[in-house]
């Protein structure tokens, strides 16, 4: 029984080591190929923000809507707390 257990543990260790080496190798190859493709394609192009000087920023929502939203949220919280006592 003990020899059989030792053999099983040895085989499990070998499978563990082989699996880790395969995964590590695959990830290393994947990283290498991604860097190679990036250098061949040209990499990331810098993104420039285009601002239209004639365009105005949007105004925030009006105050009555904010009060309505706050009231609705407060009522929902109150109802939830009443139902879950």
UniProtKB/TrEMBL annotation:
Membrane topology: Single-pass membrane protein
Stretches that traverse the bilayer: 12-33
EC category: translocase
Cofactor(s) this protein cannot do without: Na(+)
Localization (cell): Cell membrane
InterPro entries recorded: Na_pump_deCOase (IPR005899), OadG (IPR023424)
UniProt keywords, alphabetically: Cell membrane, Ion transport, Membrane, Sodium, Sodium transport, Translocase, Transmembrane, Transmembrane helix, Transport
Keyword match Transmembrane: yes
A Pfam family recorded for this sequence: OAD_gamma
Lineage top rank: taxon: Bacteria
EC number(s) reported in the record: 7.2.4.2
Catalytic activity from the UniProt record: oxaloacetate + 2 Na(+)(in) + H(+) = pyruvate + 2 Na(+)(out) + CO2
HAMAP family for this protein: OadG
Self-association and partners: Heterotrimer of an alpha, a beta and a gamma subunit.
Function per UniProt: Catalyzes the decarboxylation of oxaloacetate coupled to Na(+) translocation.
Family to which this protein belongs: Belongs to the OadG family.
Name this protein carries in UniProt: Probable oxaloacetate decarboxylase gamma chain
Record organism: Catenovulum adriaticum
Gene: oadG
């Amino acid at each position: 029984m003990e020899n059989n257990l030792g053999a099983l543990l040895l085989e499990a260790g070998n499978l563990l080591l082989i699996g880790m080496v395969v995964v590590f190798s695959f990830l290393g190859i994947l990283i290498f190929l991604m860097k190679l493709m990036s250098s061949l394609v040209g990499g990331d192009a810098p993104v420039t923000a285009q601002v239209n000087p004639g365009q105005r920023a949007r105004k925030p929502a009006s105050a009555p809507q904010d009060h309505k939203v706050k009231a609705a949220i407060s009522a929902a919280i109150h109802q939830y707390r009443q139902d879950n006592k």
